[in-house]
Amino acid sequence: MFDRLTDSFNGLFRKLSGNAKLSEKNIADAVAEVRTSLLEADVSLEVINDFTTQVMQEAVGKEVTKSLQPGQEMIGIVYDKLVALLGDAPAIPAGATPQQAAEVMMQDGPGVLQITPGPTVVMMCGLQGSGKTTTCGKLAGWLRKRNRSVMLVAADLQRPAAIEQLRTLAEQVGAIPGSGPGGGAGVGKVVFYGEPDKAAEYGQAVGVAVGVCQRALAQARREGIDTVILDTAGRLHVNDELMGELEQVNKALRPHQIFLVADAMTGQDAVKSAKAFHARLQVDGLILTKFDSDTRGGAALSVKAVTGAPIRFIGTGEKLDQIEEFHAARIAGRILGMGDVLSLVQKAKEQVSDDEAKALEEKISKGQMGMDDFLAQLKSLRRMGPLKQLMGLLPGVGNEMKNLHIDDKQIDQVEGIVHSMTPRERRDVSLLNNSRRGRVARGSGTKVEQVGGLVNQFKTVSKLMQQFGGMSAADRVNAVKGMGGGGGLLPGLSGMPGLAQQRGSTFTPSIKSKFKKRK
Amino acid sequence: MAFFKDLIAKVSQGLAKTRQAVVAKLTSLILGRTLDESLLADVERALLEADVGVGATGKIIAAAREDFRAGKIKDSAELLVHLKRSLKALLAAGGPDVDVRAASAFIPAPLHLRPHGELTIILVTGINGAGKTTSIAKLTKHLQEQRKSVLLGACDTFRAGAVKQLEVWGERLGVDVIRGQANADPAAVAFDACKAALARKVDVLIIDTAGRLQTQDPLMKQLAKIRSVLAKQAQDAPHEALLILDATTGQNALRQAEAFGNAAGITGIILSKLDGTAKGGIVVAIRSAVDIPVKFVGTGERPEDFAPFDPDTFVEGMFGQ
């Protein structure tokens, strides 16, 4: 999503290489390019001006650290500023009082406030179409996974069928297996509260939502629900009447947390609406939606800058579990083309148990990895999400992937080929002579050459993997990069141009460790 | 007379907010000031803040600067005229090779409706939350005012409550809605809707589709499938494929226009939510990149908050007149 910003930064830093000192002259062009790029990414003009001024101040006259190129030094400065501007959301422990919560706000890490005695009241607000109702469902699922019990309250009486939509979402989220003991429902549950008979045509039922919310809260108390999420109607920040209604709800229920839900694709107007909501409600946190689009997401920077409220979550897909905690370092890393390795590692952890990983590692180092192991790897990889999305998280891949079309169907083919092999063949691919290859091809509906190609690639990779056995994780990553296109097992990935050279020259080990420490 | 007055009041009310908050700023910014580089920089800033985009803004400012240096623009009043002409030129002619100085006649882009007695099919697409369903309600009312009978096809079988939302509108406007089972194949619902529309001899069938991001390949392909189903039911169908575009959207709208243009053969844009502080300047950026006309603007929550797009009104409105 931030890929194109990355492109122009890459171009910019190439320009800077070879100079020993960052002078006003050699960074002026660079900063102008940063400005244009941020504009194209929809960052608001006023935010951009602050940002570039800070970068300029910091960069001018700075001695380039001996081990770094000027471009790298500049990346460091821009990266730092971006992280600072985006800011991480603080984690708040369960059972914190509002005062304690306020203290934690100053620290690192994400979380959602939990008050004892409950219920914790969370209010969502935002423009029409920003994704409030879907986000309510996602947040309920996120909380439920953490064994919180949630009530979703339909306080949108304006949009036709909004109540219906929230009711359905509550049912869907409630049906997702929890992570509680036994993987069952756990402690967490999701209930719905709505008064469909109160809904009316737009603008006809203003103020009615206050009563609905109060009755919902009373019921949540009786039922011992610990978190109440209020789904308010979408409204324009210039609609005084409806903005007044939000203030009434705020006054009557005193929500512990008010989230502004904003569309990551919003343009310059993001600043105006965020300011207006913040002025009336003192927003506690931000949720950016539609981050799975190809928007560069500059609105994230703008909204954060004008409200000062932390970005808590980003919505990354249509499915109800596609909500992620926001990490500034990761997003800034993506901006700079460093990839989002942390997200990838976390995704991988969710899918592969430690034991599985250990067993595989042993097999690899002994050179015993077979097609079955490969298949298992492929399957856990696919469980992590669409391949294209995953590749975007890898460092350095962002740029090259832009023109590459990855079709998950091609992976289906690879799976088909492996499935058409006998167990013995899967353990030892060297058994596959021409006649066996022909059979596999017929069985999987592919061509003999495709089977042969897969077998050869597999051999190359397992040999490499064996060599990696004794290496550290970082060395492995570098070694894989060094392979260039040669070892790509995944169809369509071979021959990625310039991956090794480019990354190798931009990030020396020292700057890598620098970034690592920050995270 | 009373009816006419009422209509004008409504339209200008909706556009008023756009004008006031936004671009009235331009007129007050420009008039009365000395014409110099700093004024040009301020105008550039205002255009960028209206989401006109780096490219289109660059074109407009470059032309103005050149004419200013050549002595063709002498004061700020002339600059204002120059800017308006540039914006109108960009809006009138689509595509990247527009001469911003060219005097341009805007050719209105009304809906392509089939002759009386034949079914017109309109496909409505857009990203999640763009305002598809509300825009369909407005379009329905607009068509009803032209004495057309309308049928709605609820092909958003994905989002919870989407079918119900369309049905509520159908009830309010007195039109029937053809629906399928939850999670039914949208193309199958489109097929049923076509059959029903032909059997009932309605004038216009409007197909609502699920919101989708332009990056979701399988869902974009699904649009093509719906298109091909429609094409088999009526000659040259769909006769209109409309992209609903949120006026607050930034530069990503260009990607939307391109991607939906390719996948769904978009014939026109409805610019929704032009009643906030959003300036809708993105329309200028889109027009200077792709040749898809803007057909309507949505200016409020009610079905009647809807007007055909007119660049003169739009630009004059932008400058607060």
Residues in helices of chain B, as a percent range: 40-55%
Strand order of the largest sheet of chain B: 3-2-4-1-5-6-7-8
Mean pLDDT of chain A: 74
Percent helix range of chain A: 40-55%
User: Would you identify the regions of chain A where 5 or more consecutive residues have pLDDT less than 50?
Assistant: 1-5, 105-110, 179-186, 395-403, 472-519
Report the β-strand fraction of chain A as a percent range: 5-15%
Strand tally of chain B: 8
Structural class of chain A: alpha/beta
Largest sheet: spatial strand order of chain A: 3-2-4-1-5-6-7-8
Q: Which structural class fits the helix and strand makeup of chain B? A: alpha/beta
Query: What's the helix-strand series of chain B?
Result: HHHHEHEHEHEHEHEHEEH
The number of helical runs of chain B is: 11
**Shape, per Cα inertia axes of chain B:** elongated
How would you classify the quaternary structure? heterodimer
The rounded Rg of chain B comes to 21 Å
What is the typical, i.e. mean, pLDDT of chain B?
87
- Note the overall shape of chain A: globular
Low-confidence segments of chain B: 1-8, 14-23
The largest chain-to-chain contact, stated as pair and per-chain residue counts, equals: A-B, 50 and 47 residues
Q: What's the end-to-end separation of chain B, in Å?
A: 23 Å
Task: Report on the biggest sheet of chain A.
Answer: 8 strands, mixed
